Amino acid sequence: MSTSSDPSFTIRPIGLVHSPFTSVEGMPIQASAAMDQTARVEVFEEFAPGLRDIEGFEYLVLITRFHVGSSENLNVIPFMDVKTHGVFSTRSPARPNRLGLTIVKLEKVSGRFLEIRGNDMLDQTPVIDIKPYVPALDAHQTENIGWYKDRLFVLPTAKSDSRMAD
Fold first, then answer.
1. 3-class SS of residue 51
2. From start to end of the chain, where are the E strands?
3. Could you tell me the pTM of the whole model?
4. CA 166 to CA 159: how far, in whole Å?
5. In a structure prediction context, what are the per-residue pLDDT tens digits for the chain, which is 166 residues long?
6. Which of 2, 14, 28, 65 could be stapled to 34 by a disulfide with Cβ–Cβ 3.0 to 4.6 Å?
């Protein structure tokens, strides 16, 4: 264990998303509302051995880095609301460390390329990690979903805009 007083660390991408979305304007804001949107995840050659057995999973969790924009706000107006919320009670891309999490449907594995559905990511989004989605481990039923409870109705039509891309 390091005793350094510097809590920073380096993360290197394991791949890239190849997406039809080249601008944040008008793209989906959540994968669950974008199941008709496809993309291709390229896993870099050095990490390709880590894909062994991945074809046995229907859904994957992608951890990504929001690479467009520089905003890192602690209070944001999320795409699904008109009021300000603390960033940690949102899924806003304008956050410290700018990490994203997307659950996608795995359609096909072609060598080191993954064809996915449920794309809400920009072209060239760096992929930090890939994990299998396992409902028994990942899904929890709850009615306590904060401010989203009164705003989920906007999800089917909500789109990204430039407010988080500053």
1. helix
2. 15-18, 38-43, 59-65, 75-76, 85-86, 99-110, 113-117, 126-132
3. 0.83
4. 17
5. 445 677 888 899 999 999 999 988 878 777 777 788 899 999 999 999 999 999 999 999 999 998 887 677 899 888 777 899 999 988 888 888 889 999 999 999 999 999 999 998 999 999 999 999 999 988 888 888 676 667 766 666 666 666 556 5
6. 28
Give residue for tokens 């960033």: 87
Sequence-ordered alpha helix ranges (H) in the chain: 135-138
Candidates 3.30.420.40, 3.30.2110.10, 1.10.1420.10, 2.40.30.70; correct CATH number of 15-134+144-159? 2.40.30.70
* Phi then psi dihedrals of residue 84, to 5 deg: -75, 140
Residue 99: exposure state from Cβ atoms within 10 A (0-12, 13-18, ≥19): middle
Please give the single-letter amino acid code of residue 41: V
